[in-house]
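Kindly review this record before class:
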Amino acid sequence: MLHTGDWHVGRTIRGRSRLQEFDDVLGEVVGVAVQEGVDAVLLAGDIYDHRSPVPEADALVFEALVRLHQAGIPVVAIPGNHDAAARLEAFAKLLAPIGVTVVPRVVPPDEGSVVEVASRDGAEAALVACVPFVPERRFGDAAALFRATEAWYQSYADGLGHLLQAMAQPFRDDRVNVLLAHLFTDGAIPGGGEHQITIGIEYALSPSRLPATASYVALGHVHRPQAARGAPSPTRYAGSLLQLGFGELEQTKSVTAAEASPGRPAKVREVALSSGRRLVDLEGTLDQVLDQGRLLEDAYLRVFVHTDGPVPGIAERVRDALPGAVDVALKYERVEPSDDGPPLASLSPRDRFVSYYRRQHGVDEVPEPLLDAFEEVLELEGA
C-alpha cells in the first residue's frame, strides 16, 4: 500500500498560486505508486485546502486519480477537516468507475465504511476501515449511528476511541486489516501548517486506543511525517506533500510504503518527495539578505531585515530584488509604549498620529518628513 494524505491542493502562499507545484508533486506520487507496484493507495483526507476548491485544483486531483486507475491501482479515500464531505459524497459515484472508493462520512461497518481491496494477484485482500474527520460538535451524530453507551460521551477523545474499536470489529485473521483515519493523536508533533483548533488537547486521542488488530494504521491530519508512538500496531502520519507554510521549514516531505500480509504487522518505510519549492528564512542586514536571497532563486523567502528603526519602502526594495520574498519584516529594538497620558479623544489629529506611530512601530520619535507629510494631507482634507 502507498499511504498519503494532506494534499491540500489549492493552497496558496501569501496569495501566490502553487498549482504547478501541486501538479509536479502529484505526478511524483503517482510515479512512486507505479514504481513500487503497490496494490492500493490510501488517501487519508485533506485532499483539498478549501471546501470549495477552484476548478484547477479539481483538475489536478482528478488527473492524479485517473493516472492511478490507468496503472491499475485502486484508491481508498476519506475527507479531512478541510474537505467538504457532501461534495466528495457527490463525486463518489463518478469516481467509483475509475477505482476510487470514497467513504465520505462515518457510518457503521455494515453500511459501507469497511472497504475490501484485493491484491494485484488476487492472492490476498485488505479490509480498510475508514474514519473520516469527525468535528467535536458532530461527534454525537456519529455515535448515534452505533450502539453507543454512556461511556462514548464522556469526552471527544474517549468517544473516538470507542468508535475506532467498533470500526475494527469486522477485521479478520485472513485479511490485511487497515485503519484509515483523519484524526489527531496525543504526542504527535504538528507540522506547523495545520488548523490549530483541530490539534488541541480536546482532540488528542491516546495512541493506545488505536486498534491492536490492525496490520497498519494510516493517519492524516498532521503535516510532519512521523510514527505514532505508543500505538499497539504500526501507525504513521504520511504528512503533507509540500512545505505548506513557514512552520514546516526544513521538513522533508514523503509518502509511506507499507507492506503487510494477513496476521502480520506491516513493514513501513518513507519514500521522500523532491517536488515543490523550499521555504527558507533569511535574516541579516539589507545587504546580507539580498546576497543570500540571490542564491535561492527557486525558494519562497521569509525575510527579517536588521535596521535601526522603521525604514519606509524597504519591503518593496526587498521584493523587487528577491521575487521569492513573500514576507518581509524589520527587526530592531522596540520601545514599549507607555499607557500614561491623556485619552486619545482629547488629542489633536497630529498627536493622535504620533501616538499611533509610536505604538505601531515601537519607537520614541516620528521622522519629521513623515510628520510634514501628515500635516500636508491633513490640510488637503480640511480644504
Q: What stands out?
A: The two ends are 73 Å apart (CA to CA).
